[in-house]
Specification:
The protein is α+β, with helices and mostly antiparallel strands and 202 residues long. Helices cover 22% and strands 25% of the residues. It contains five helices and nine strands; from the N terminus they run ββαβββαββααββα. The strands form two sheets. The chain has a seven-stranded antiparallel β-sheet. The chain has a two-stranded antiparallel ribbon with strand order 8-9. It is an enzyme of class 2 (transferase).
């Protein structure tokens, strides 16, 4: 459920922010902006930079500041589609802030890094845990491909987009972002999959 559009002012900028929450949230844009600093950065990728932020109530969230690239005209509408996705193996999009120059996607925070970091680290990953991660990732993809309306194709599945919690439960991240941003392969998009939200390989 979307809890309606809100317009907020920030003490750091005169440019107003539009806020679209996808669940009941108790913080302001100023609570978010104070964490968009290098010391709070936890990830960086093709779509932007991710920061870890602690809200006044102690809740931890991940804030993805999208790169200042042109976005598709239907960006806000399609973000709302992504915001309604709820599955145990998919990172939950909980809100979206934007103004004329900045777009911020707010996610629930997953504490144990990503699969790429785990595989490159010194920790010995047993086969039972590997199987658990693989099955969780497959469940998340199956939900996006078969149970969402419209269908959502991830378009950017890789180890760095599989996040892990403290129990090594897998969560798919960055689903749908390649569709939202004008990325180089947009000429290959979804005309071949009627109604699909995403990309399928040629």
């Amino acid at each position: 459920m979307t809890h309606g559009y809100k317009v907020e002012k920030s003490s750091e900028s005169e440019d107003p922010w539009t806020f679209i929450p996808f669940q009941l949230l108790n913080f302001t844009i100023d609570n978010i902006l104070e964490y968009l600093k290098d010391e709070h950065e936890i990830g960086r990728g093709g779509f932007g930079v991710v920061y870890k932020a602690e809200m006044p109530n102690g809740e931890l969230i991940a804030v993805k500041k999208l790169n200042p690239e042109p976005a598709v005209d239907s960006f806000t509408t399609e973000v709302q589609i992504l915001g309604h996705i709820r599955h145990r193996n998919i990172v939950k999009l909980i809100g979206y802030y934007s103004n004329r120059s900045v777009k911020l996607l707010l996610y629930n925070y997953i504490p144990n890094g990503n699969l790429q970091q785990l595989l490159r680290g010194s920790e010995n990953l047993d086969w039972e845990t590997r199987h658990k991660i693989a099955v969780g990732s497959a469940h998340g993809l199956a939900y996006l491909h078969h149970d969402c309306v419209p269908t959502i194709l991830h378009r950017d599945v890789k180890c760095s987009n599989i996040l892990l919690d403290s129990e090594y439960e897998a969560y798919l991240a960055d689903f749908g972002l390649a569709k939202l941003m004008n990325t180089p392969n947009d000429h290959l998009t979804i005309s071949r999959v009627t109604g699909a939200f995403g990309y399928i390989s040629p």
